[in-house]
Amino acid sequence: MAGQKAEDEGKEDRVHLRRSISLVPAVSFIVGTMVGSGIFIAPKGVHINTGSVGLSLLIWALCGLLSTLGALCYAELGTSFKKSGAHYTYLLETLGPLPAFLRLWSEFIFIRPAVTAYIALAFGHYVVEPFFTPCPAPLPLIKLTSFLGLTFLVAVNCWSVSLASRTQVFLLIIKLFALVLIIVPGIMALAKGRTENFQNFFNSEQLTLTKLPLAFYSGLYAYSGWFALNFVTEEVINPKRNIPLAIILSMVTVTTLYVLVNVAYYTMMTEDELLISDAVAVTFASKVLPRMASLVPLLVALSCLGAMNGGIFAVPRMLFVAAREGQWPALFSMIHIRRKTPMPAVLLLSPLMIIMLARGEIYQLINFASFSRWFFIAVVTLGLLVHRYRFPDHPRAFKVPLAVPVIFTVVCFFIVGLSLYSDPWNTGCSFAVTLTGIPVYYLTIKHSYVPTRWRKAFNYCSKQLQILLEVIQQEVQTY
Prior knowledge:
about 475 residues, Amino acid/polyamine transporter I, AA/rel_permease1, mainly alpha, disordered N terminus, two-stranded antiparallel ribbon, globular
């Protein structure tokens, strides 16, 4: 007994990522990552591409359903494979190293920088614009504010895992308050008979098949983040129970809230008012809650901050796991000796996020990132089907019906394929950048064609950075 206790205490003193995420922080982490700028920005993108109230609400419900199917597939994967890393780990385990590396490459090169940049831009808009209303806010000031918010969260995630987790719980409470502030007056008005904006509920005249994928992308963008907990599997307490439970609770909560929020928007705002607004929640508040109109932008900005925090917390774990597997430089599998955070992986993403932030525009960034993200999510669930077929006896603590991954995979591939026709420039660029990972993989991972002089210089720089950042390899296996 005493020997076991001493061994456990010795293990705690060694450098590794702790299992510190229980059920409540897990739910907060998923919901907090999902509920960000999307529900306050995406309604306009959905409506532009559907042209009617009824179809828009249907898209929101279908996006929630589709995301729930995907989340259930990831719940099975998260309990079948003990490693962190989400998409990367599941592709590595089911389809092999090349698909896994391409997912890692696209995440690092543009998906995460683009996703974080458009959330940061939304944060900047909501912080700055109230001070300049009714005049347009200066774009440099918006981008400076976005940069400061992004830098603050990178610092928090470098400093402490528990601080980042507590920040996420605190910001989630603010997010839910913001959503309730929109839902309650809208539903009350609807109950009193304010239904004039729901006349001509389904107007299919403006709908074209080519626009549907872009409507789904806007809606799915608002739901994105349901896979966030799978990035940190090794840090979840009792993952076989808490991962599926947290995912199910989160998806039911968010889907219900999103549909109710959109019903509230359409109850109090006409279609024209929604389409001319770049900040739907602020327009809603100025019309419905004039005394609290100045508070809503602040709540939305803090909501965006929470979504950014979730991404900055989660995605470096993918780089961390890839470096541990030998598909990324070893420096990024190291942990700070005192902070116990994967500091190099967190810091590596920052420069590309800032570049994307400086050059990006919100709706272009959504379409640009969404193609590759959803393509690889479809490939991951295809990998789940392949793995089930090849290894039917593999232990699975949580198993979804076969129809769930089949339906989800087919629908995702359909949306992704059609989007190449709907927005060929952004989606084509996304696809092309993803393919650049193939020569990188074969030149540096599969076969090492890097000149010896370059390799020595890189190893020297890595060693100096390791000393500067005070990081080492984790000393305890956590999977």
